[in-house]
Amino acid sequence: MDRSFYHFALNYRGKMNPDDFSRFADAMFLDPSFPKASKDFEKISRYIEERAHPVMKASIFDQMWDDYCSH
Predict the structure, then answer these.
(1) pLDDT for residue 11
(2) pTM over 0.70
(3) What is the Cα Rg of the chain in Å?
(4) Three-state secondary-structure class, residue 1
(5) pLDDT for res 1
(6) Which of 3, 4, 14, 28 is deepest in the core (most CB within 10 A)?
(7) What angle separates helix 58-70 from helix 41-51, to the nearest 10 degrees?
(8) Could you read off the pLDDT of 10-54 as tens digits, one per residue?
(9) Which pLDDT score is estimated for 25?
(10) DSSP states along 16-66
C-alpha cells in the first residue's frame, strides 16, 4: 500500500461499460473533498458513510479496500 486508496481506485475509472467499481471511482474523482491522500480505512469509511455521493456505497468501498490491501 505505497499509494493512497484514492490513487489505487483511479484504476477503475472510465470503463466503457460501467460497473459498481467504476461508478464509485468516477464519483470519487469528481468529489473535491474526498480524502485523497489517506491510507486509513476508518477515515475513508467515515467519509463515505457521512458525506459521500450515494454512488459511493460502503459495500463497494469494502470490496475495493480488499483489493487495495491485496496489492
Answers:
(1) 96
(2) yes
(3) 11
(4) coil
(5) 66
(6) 28
(7) 160
(8) 999 999 999 999 999 999 999 999 999 999 999 999 999 999 999
(9) 97
(10) SS--HHHHHHHHHHH-TTS-TT---HHHHHHHHHHHS-TTS-HHHHHHHHH
57 residue type, one letter: K
- Three-state DSSP class for 10? helix
Residue among 17, 37, 27 nearest 60 (CA): 27
> Interior CA angle at 9 toward 35 and 28, to 5°?
50
The answer to whether the beta carbons of residues 12 and 64 sit under 8 Å apart is yes
- Asked if residues 57 and 24 have their Cβ atoms less than 8 Å apart, the reply is yes
CA gap 4, 18 in Å, rounded = 23
